[in-house]
Structures are given as C-alpha cells and as structure tokens.
Design brief:
Strand order of the largest sheet of chain B: 1-2
Structural class of chain B: mainly alpha
Strand content of chain A: 25-35%
CATH class of chain A: Alpha Beta
Strand order of the largest sheet of chain A: 6-7-8-3-9-10
Strand content of chain B: under 5%
Largest sheet of chain B: 2 strands, antiparallel
Number of helices of chain A: 8
CATH superfamily of chain A: P-loop containing nucleotide triphosphate hydrolases
Number of domains of chain A: 1
Order of helices and strands of chain B: HHHHHEEHHHHH
Number of helices of chain B: 10
Order of helices and strands of chain A: EEEHEEHEHHHEHEEEHH
Oligomer: heterodimer
Structural class of chain A: alpha/beta
CATH architecture of chain A: 3-Layer(aba) Sandwich
C-alpha cells in the first residue's frame, strides 16, 4: 500500500469529556492524536462512545471538558472550518441524502460553502466521476442500491474537499458487493492522501487496510495501537476477532 | 422495493423538464386561480393543456389515478353532497332527498377543477427538481417582508425529497404489521394507532438525523444562488399561460 502519512496531527483531542444526562454515558478523558494520512479503525460495542467521539471531530458536538483541535485549531473556536476539514458520513445513508437527484445531493455541501456556480459544478462533476456516479447523475437517490447510496453519501461529503473522512459504520446493511464497492472507494481515498477514521463493529471487513486500531469501551479508549498489536485484545471488549487472526494468520483484504 | 411516488421528480429529456421552474410554478398558481372562474370552454382548454403536459411526465394515467384513489373517493363524496344540497330542477328524488340538475353540474365542475389542479401539481413535481422548486419558491417569496424565503424553500424542497421515503417506510411498517396478523384486529382506531405511532417515530427520528447530517455539511442561510436559465421557450410558455388564463376567466 502506498499511503501518504505525515507526523503532524490533523486531529488532536486532549482530556475530552462529554456526558449525556441522565444516563451518564458519553466520553471520559479521551486524549488522542491522529496524524495526517492515517487509516484508523475505531471499534467498540454499542454505546461505547464511538459515534460521540466522531461527532466531536467535526463540531456536531462540542467538548464539555477538554479540547479537540483540527489541523491545530480548536473546533469550538471555528466550527465551520472543522466541518470543511472533517467530512462525516453517517450510518444511515438514506437520511443524510438531501437532493432529489444524485447531482443535486452532491452539490448540497459545496453550495453551503457558497462556492461560485462554476466551482460547484466542477466539484460535483469531478466527485461523481471519482466515485463512479456520473451515469446516475439524474437518478433519484431513493432508487439507488445500498452500495450506490453509501457511495453517494461519501460523494456528498467528498465534494466539499475535506482532508479527513470520518465514516460511521459504513458497511451497515450492505450486501457483499455493496461492502466491496464502499471499501474499494475508502481504500482508494486513503491512497490519495485522505485521513480515514472509520467506526466499525465488524473488524474483518476493514482491518486489513488499517494502520491503527482504537478500541473504545464505556466512553474511554481501552486500547490503541498498530492493528497487529491491538487485534489480540479485541474479544475482551465484546468485539469479534477476525477468523484469520484467530488462526494466527494476517488479516487479508476483502478486495482480494 | 423502493419506488417513486407520482409526485416525485423523474428525469426525462422533454421541453417541460428543461423549462424554468419559476414559469412552471407561476403557471401552476395562475391556472389554479383561473380555474376557479372558468366555465366549460375554459376548463376544456386548460384540460387539454394539462393533459399534454402530464403526458410529458411519462407517468401512466392508470398509476396516477391509482395513487389518487383516496382523493378520487373524496371527490365523488363531494360531488354527491353537492348534488344533494344544491337547490334546483329535480333530477332524481329518493326518500325525500332531491338530486338537482344544477347540483350535479356544479359538483362536477368543482371536482373537475380539483382534478385539474392536482394533475397540474403532479406535472410540476414530476418535471422539476426539488432544488428548482425550492429556488423558485425563494424567488417568489423574497420580495415579501417578514418571510424567511430561504427556510420556506428548503422546507418545501425537503418535503418533496422525502415523500417517497416516507411512503416506502409506511409500506414497510404496514407489511411488518400484516406479518403479525394486524388484519385480525377489526378496530380501526387500534390499527391506526399501531400504524401511526411507529411511522411518526421513524419520521421524527429521520428528521432528526437529517438535521444533523445537514449541519455536518455546513447548511446555513447563505448558499450558492441557483443558476437560472431563462430561455426563449420559457417566454413563449409564459405567454401561452397568460392567454389561456384570460380565456379561462372571460370565455
């Protein structure tokens, strides 16, 4: 793999805490840095705080305690900049697609950034070409397959030219071809230099491409490090270990 | 299986699809208003125009009527009530109830107007992207003081986008309930409640997720303005609509 990585953190969280009343769930004292160009998988059981952490990266949630910096600037001080830099793809693709056609939806983000019409059109066309959606430009998103819809959700974010792509359970409810379609795009985006942060339950599909695995449990980081080091620990945190890892083999890609 | 409602936009290469959304929206408003004053000649002319426009959407008439079945039942009920409640020359008398010739005629005209407006609306929705409708609504509302044109336009655009999604969810919910023998329950209130509550819950949850996703994509009051392409064809269409409205009102 030929990923581009540099050591400057694109995302840095320091002593981040966020508590949701009344259950008290949330994040507790999270400190982590993510270097530019890294492919990070964030795993953990339901309610472990994965989505809450991801939402702090693009300012959908702001820290109650601590700070989150994107490219050196506090998210709380410049939310709009964080949202431009960190593009977020949600688990439920249907409810994040706004446009009545594929083209309209891809244009939604760039139009919100008040780019000129020429820039919007160029970004939309380039993104649709990049994700293989050009032939569906005038199609209703409602009629797309699961994989196409997830690619559209990625395109809608990618058209805003973010440096970081955050994907929350991108393989949920997808069939095998759909998973491969989305995985192919995510891997290609990483190879082009995007930082990828991907939250997943099922490590098998994606961990073969990741450089770092972070396990979250009860709102804290329970383990963090290179995939090979963290993988043996996952079953302690109710995460299923990939079959190949059980057999002591390296986890290979679903794309092979 | 996902499918589009007849009210949803479907792309086709026709003159009507290419037409400026402002003209289509203006035509919808003008023809709907003119139909209130139109007689048989005016309504016939307008119906021919609407039928030709509806043909361009590519929607089979049977499917459109199928989706409008409940509305058609309502229209028939209105026609019958109007026929029975308007005084005039008796056409039929039954158990003290008089169906008048004038009532039948007025009821028919009323239902004809409603049908014309609904088909006109379906034609506009099926041939105009929601972004075009949203921009046209904003364009018409912008001169009005105290109206947040941008927000009203966005709400209408989202409504059009999510009609097919909500209909699909309603079908899924109904299927799930049929699978658990809801049809054995004869109480309509129980059935409405068991259908309505999950539907409302799903719709509100989806609205919530949508709002978060829009926020994540930097949605705000300032956006790149819509690019209008006012062509000579749009001017011709505008003239035709104005002439037709004048004929409908005065003929």
């Amino acid at each position: 793999m030929t990923w581009i990585e540099d050591s400057r953190p694109i995302i840095a969280a320091e002593r981040l805490s966020h508590r949701f009343a009344p259950a008290g769930r949330g994040l507790h004292d999270i400190t982590l840095t993510i270097p530019r160009g890294q492919f990070v998988v964030l795993a953990g059981p339901n309610g472990s705080g994965k989505s809450t952490l991801l939402r702090h990266f693009n300012g959908l949630l702001l820290p109650q305690v601590g700070t989150v910096r994107v490219d050196g600037i506090s998210v709380a001080k410049d939310v709009a900049r964080a949202r431009r830099t960190v593009g977020m793809v949600f688990q439920d693709a249907e409810s994040q697609i706004v446009g009545e056609t594929v083209r309209d939806d891809v244009a939604f983000g760039p139009e919100n950034l008040c780019w000129s019409r020429g820039m919007v059109d160029a970004a939309v066309q380039a993104t649709m070409d990049r994700l293989g959606l050009s032939h569906l430009a005038d199609q209703s998103p409602h009629l797309l397959s699961g994989g196409e819809r997830r690619r559209l959700a990625i395109a809608g974010v990618l058209a805003m030219r973010p440096d970081v792509l955050v994907l929350d359970e991108p393989f949920a409810n997808l069939d095998y071809p759909g998973i491969r379609e989305v995985l192919q795009q995510v891997v290609a985006l990483h190879q082009e230099g995007h930082t990828i942060i991907l939250a997943a339950h099922d490590l098998e599909k994606v961990v073969g491409h990741a450089q770092r695995l972070i396990i979250m449990d009860k709102g804290r980081i329970a383990a963090d490090g290179p995939v090979a080091n963290v993988l043996p620990l996952v079953e302690r945190f109710d995460i299923r270990m990939p079959c190949q890892a059980r057999l002591g083999l390296p986890v290979t890609s679903w794309l092979n | 299986m996902a499918q589009l409602s007849v009210f949803g936009y479907r792309w086709r290469s026709t003159a009507l699809h290419a037409m400026d959304a402002r003209i289509k929206l203006a035509a919808l408003m003008a023809l709907s208003t003119a139909s209130l004053a139109a007689g048989i000649t005016g309504m016939l002319l307008a119906s021919v125009l609407v039928a030709a426009a509806f043909h361009q959407t590519g929607t089979p008439l049977v499917r459109a009527l199928g989706e409008l079945r409940y509305f058609l039942i309502l229209l028939i009920a209105i026609w019958m009530l109007r026929s029975a409640s308007t005084p005039g020359d008796p056409l039929l008398t039954w158990q003290g109830m008089v169906i008048s010739r004038q009532g039948v005629f007025e009821g028919a005209m009323l239902c004809w107007r409603w049908l014309l407006i609904v088909f006109l609306g379906m034609t506009v929705c099926a041939t105009t992207r929601s972004s075009g409708i949203r921009a046209a609504v904003e364009w018409f509302l912008r001169p009005l003081p105290g109206v947040q044109a941008h927000r009203v336009g966005t709400m209408i655009g989202l409504l059009l986008r999510f009609i097919p999604v909500i209909l699909t969810q309603a079908r899924e919910t109904a299927d799930a309930q049929r699978a658990r023998a809801v049809e054995n329950r004869k109480n309509p209130i129980y059935r409405m409640r068991s259908m309505g509550l999950p539907m409302l819950r799903r719709t509100f949850l989806m609205a919530d997720r949508l709002a978060i996703a829009m926020e994540a994509r930097c949605f705000g009051d300032q956006r790149t303005p819509h690019a209008w392409h006012f062509q000579p064809m749009d001017r011709i269409a505008l003239v035709i609509v104005i002439v037709l409205c004048v004929i409908m009102i005065f003929a």
